[in-house]
């Protein structure tokens, strides 16, 4: 539309921002292959930090905890959140908005406030019921901050749903339950999958809330990284981050391919 | 065409104290094409949903073939519905949408028969060759046909259609009217059709039920409804009408504007105040000297077949359709034959309709506003 | 049927009562309590001691938010002007760093900002004297901006990219210059995006303890550090910690309410 010249300053600005965003990450990746423990002086390529990483029991345990809590929390939150979203969607109008506001509190609240408040809840109920902070409290905390994301991603799909679709399915012979699984679930599936993915990444990425609710015996990867940065600074951390970054990158690429394949499938149908 | 199939008896429907249907009584015969006609919010869609089983009336009973079916869920009724916006299952293709109901039948129908019935039905709605198309890739008219095929493939005794043509453009709507009538006759089943479009109702139906404010205003054949409207509401809603206050002086004699006219109506009290309907096409324009009444032309609109002219009679504006051109500002005389008058009892609608002071606005509003508001009726 | 589906909401409402409302209530109770038990205002009367921490936290978070707007708004605007094909990738590139662990992103800056870090090495290489960057308030702000910039860009971008183009054309038609179009149409309409961006940047910034510990070297105590210290650190005192968290939360909520009120007014003005 406009002449190309006026775009040049914008492009330069974009380039600078991307350098700002990616320079630290690239430096981090490069130095994970450094042969000495310096994070600033390059002294040759080696995989020793990766080797060390995989022999570090603490890291492996933390990785196991992180992955299991993320998967469990994502699955439970997705199922729970989907049903909750359907329930909330069918609430009377005047109840819907206060419930949704309540649902947004964990999203709006500072993580540290959510973290300490859940910590207090678990400690208080733990002293009464006789349990301590650990994997279960960590999992509960993760579920509780994941469910709102699932609800927020399922809700719009429910709103898009044709009012009459369930009626139509019943009209054609479905019982109510059949109508739900044959018609409603396939229609809101993109929202459910999306919610599950968001929940999973939120769990993987979380540090602050885990930090306050996991107790001293349970550690997630983020917590290990945090303790590493406090004690000794070694390229082992660079290796962890590189692996996690690549893992997420692969996950993202898979998601993108999946959705573009779906797009193509839709478009491939003769119009 | 004689057997009674569905009966609604004293049905009342209320949502949160708001009465939507008020003591409705209606019976529907087998193989009949019946239309529920009325403005938005009149209760026509509610009536349809009660028959479909999506709503249970607050009070009153629904009978199907003589059996009370108030508590029978939709999937057990021998009734299928074509929904307003079709409600096709978006993730299924045309074939699977049509086969949807057949695959649910127990005991299972074998694949061959399903296939045969689906293809047969797609042929009936002229969609042969569209089996594997995604429903989202179809035009509105085609989606409409899929919805009809999907409902009919289950061989219902009754097909319910909720404003099925509302989303189509005018041309397509006319074609689909013919199409629907043909399908109904071919299948030999009952159609219950909901619409706010009076032309559609007159063109397709065996019986028209005019509704307003949750009450049936009139039931009758299209001709009855048009020629013998029961009250001012029906007269105004169906076609164009000039409605004026009159007094019945005797059988066959009605007085309007202080002048006695000969008419064909009888059975009223002497000197009973009445509403008198004069259809715009029943007014003949004559020379002012020969006129029974004399009025002033205030506006003229060319309509192709005829002119619509608005004529002022003592402050009351009439719509007259004529093939003669009368310039605005001219004085004309009119003549009405006895058959041109239709006399109605006074009702709560008297005085509300039938004046053309704001003619052009009203004309537009009728179709547009109704469609826009229709959504709100659904939500209830 | 609608009636029965409604029931599905109840377990979650119960859940929220347990895991959203109850914890906050407990924080409030703790804020007015002490190790000895009983109701007390002590925690709040001691708050004065921590006034510098409050001021420092809000000041740094405010500055970080301003920088995020200054960088994020033009970025979002430029992105929305790109061709729709490259837009998707460019936006994804802004979001991608977010998928890397937050701690690692912050940690990455340590090796760049250190006294013997890469930036200083670069500076000496081109003949300049090294600058002290790590463990300064500036480094903390940088960490906040780096971590939360996408939170500012995304809501602004999504509002601007959905702007009805005919509105802009209408404004041009009515005689607005491109600067006028921006000032009178685009900016007011994108304000809701800016407001939610501010919320999303300010709240984590004001409550962080990771960034201040990694990039500030623990020399600049922020509210997050204080709370962490009272709950998990050497100064274990969850009562005081709760009081600090409560006050912080209330101040933030009041700020956001005022801001949103102001924003709503703007929005309505535009509508009219």
Describe this structure in words.
The complex is a heterotrimer of chains A (271), B (380) and C (272). Chain A has 271 residues and is mostly helical. Chain A contains eleven helices and no strands. Helix content of chain A is 78%, strand content 0%. In chain A, helix 3 crosses helix 10, helix 4 crosses helix 6 and helix 6 crosses helix 8. The two termini of chain A are 31 Å apart. In chain B, 26% of the residues lie in helices and 33% in strands. Chain B has a six-stranded mixed sheet with strand order 6-7-8-3-9-10, with helices on both faces. Chain B has a five-stranded antiparallel sheet with strand order 13-12-11-14-20. Chain B has a five-stranded antiparallel sheet with strand order 15-19-16-17-18, with no helix packed on it. Chain B is built from nine helices and 20 strands. The relative contact order of chain B is 0.12. Chain B has two domains: 224 residues, 3-Layer(aba) Sandwich (Rossmann fold), CATH 3.40.50.300; 139 residues, Nucleic acid-binding proteins (OB fold (Dihydrolipoamide Acetyltransferase, E2P)), CATH 2.40.50.140. Chain C has a single domain, classed as MetI-like (MetI-like fold). Chain C is built from 13 helices and no strands. The two termini of chain C are 41 Å apart. In chain C, helix 4 runs antiparallel to helix 10 and helix 6 packs across helix 8. Chains in contact: A-B, A-C. Chains A and B meet through helix 7 and helix 8 of A and strand 6 of B.
